[in-house]
Design brief:
415 residues; 20 strands
């Protein structure tokens, strides 16, 4: 049994720079964990699909079949190894390889081969696309790149229990943005795994979030952080009404004018507005609480009474100093309301065209600067305090995975 995570500790900067550690992650980490692959809203109808690169070099195709089942496959044609589907999302009636038009059914079976007889036994029998373990949770699709030792339900059990009152399946995807960043995936994950940076990087939030109320709880490989909303932190006057507080109230259906110049009324107004919107399953405390779940190893799920945001940190196939960062934004929809058509976009930098959001733009600017600093010979690695214990827990858990023998074959490096 692994010893408990200490409250303070050091992390070697090699974790963020080393090609050897990145290779070890490909063989010892990514084939052993469940990874978020798609919001179910993107594969709601038969033929709807999503493609995503996971674990560095594994191209994954998630698609809903004609029978209504969501499946995941390696996104590669079994003829010559060409990527089968190039688009990031869309809808198809069949899966046809662009190179020679080998055609596959939505359940992965081989449907048609031009001049099939010329292949003899190679195109006969049960030739199929290689399937991956695939399971859904609260409107989210996860895949496993190896042989799961736990079901998805077992893997996510702590989060499932804590988030059950939120009815996350009622949260619809409205926007998905991908950013290609010049930093290690853990550099990004670290920042989204602590609130210690909020006063320095996001001082404009301090009138609506009390960062001193953060409570970190470790759950197996995962971690949860909770914090109070609708009230100023100690860096702001307890009565000062800030723009951030007014925006928080308006976004949840409350009238900021009812504050009457006193921010201390914020939590009560927030609860009143959310109750009026029919949120009866959540406790009074939950109505003024944010919950941030770090789902090991590379997902951060932030949940609020009326919205949620999922961050995915996906490593590059070969370069430890590059990552794909995804931000998925969800909103709660009422009974009978139509689910919106999500906006999907890819950006080369944090402030590319499109409304990224000030908080995310500021965060991503910081992680790029952190990665640049990692290369300095004057820096040995992060010194983590108790406010950053969730980060330390992530690295300790990662170290435990890397200390095990690799799975036979692992995940190819993509070189």
């Amino acid at each position: 049994m692994r010893p408990p995570t200490p409250e303070v500790g050091l992390v070697s900067k090699a974790a963020y720079l080393s090609p050897e550690i990145a290779a070890a992650e490909r063989s010892k980490l990514w084939p052993r964990v469940w990874l978020h692959a798609a919001a179910a809203d993107l594969v709601a109808r038969p033929g709807q699909f999503v493609t995503v690169r996971l674990g560095g070099a594994t191209e994954v195709l998630v698609i809903r079949g004609d029978d209504g089942e969501v499946r995941a496959f390696h996104n590669v044609c079994q003829h010559r190894g060409r990527r089968l589907v190039d688009d990031a999302s869309g809808q198809l009636r069949t899966l046809r390889c662009p190179l020679h038009h080998w055609q596959w059914n939505l359940d992965g079976g081989l449907a048609r081969v031009p001049e099939r007889a010329s292949f003899g036994a190679l195109a006969e029998g049960d030739v199929r696309l290689p399937a991956l373990a695939c399971a859904s949770w609260n409107g989210q699709v996860f895949v496993h790149l190896g042989q799961p030792e736990q079901t998805l339900a077992e893997w996510l059990a702590p989060a499932t229990e804590a988030l059950e009152p939120y009815d996350l399946a009622d949260y619809a995807l409205v926007d998905q943005k991908t950013f290609e960043l010049p930093c290690n995936w853990k550099t990004v994950a670290d920042l989204f795994n602590e609130a210690y940076h909020v006063p320095a990087v996001h001082p404009y939030l301090l009138g609506s979030v009390d960062e001193t109320t953060v409570v970190t709880t470790l759950h197996g490989p995962h971690a949860e952080q909770t914090f109070e909303l609708g009230r100023p932190g100690p860096h702001v006057s307890p009565t000062e009404v800030t723009e951030a507080l007014e925006e928080l109230l308006k976004s949840n259906g409350a009238d900021p004018a009812k504050l009457e110049g006193d921010a201390r009324r914020g939590p009560a107004l927030l609860r009143e507005a959310l109750r009026a919107r029919g949120l009866t399953a959540l406790s009074d405390a939950a109505l003024t609480m944010g919950r941030s779940w770090f789902l090991f190893p590379s997902q951060t799920l932030n949940v609020y009474p009326m919205s949620a945001m999922l961050h995915r940190h996906r490593p590059h196939p070969t370069d430890p100093e590059r990552t794909s960062f995804d931000q998925l934004t969800f909103t709660r929809i009422g009974a009978g309301e139509p689910r919106p058509t999500p906006r999907i976009s890819t950006h080369a930098r944090p402030s590319d065209e499109g409304d990224t959001g000030r908080v995310t733009e500021d965060d991503l600017a910081q992680v790029i600067a952190v990665q640049a600093g990692m290369r300095s010979p004057g820096f040995e690695g992060p010194r983590l305090g108790r406010h950053e214990r969730a980060i330390l827990h992530m690295h300790a858990t990662l170290d435990a995975y890397l200390a095990t023998p690799p799975l036979q074959g692992g995940i190819p490096s993509g070189r």
